[in-house]
Amino acid sequence: DNTFANDIDFRSRHENMRWWLSKKKVPFDHPESFSKLAPERNTCEEKLSELIMEASQRDEGKDRFSKGTHTPRMLMNVNPNIVCGKCPHFRNFYLQLMAFCNF
Fold it and tell me: Structural domain boundaries of the chain?
């Protein structure tokens, strides 16, 4: 399930974050389709991580989303084979990492 409720820091407010992100047109069934690649910059036109950070900052006094802290925990729930099929940047990174690790 594509939800923040699985993360202990966001469990109590995932519904508010999800509502706000849905207003920003984040497709929860297929979040990887959120933005398009901007080839001239070699990055996405809009960054989902920036919207997640903004959504997490709406509740004052609560933990904010941190790429360094929360991304690794959320990636534990990701199937790399699915991401490789949907994100060429991740696929290149993953294949290089696997080659480096001799897998």
Answer: 4-77
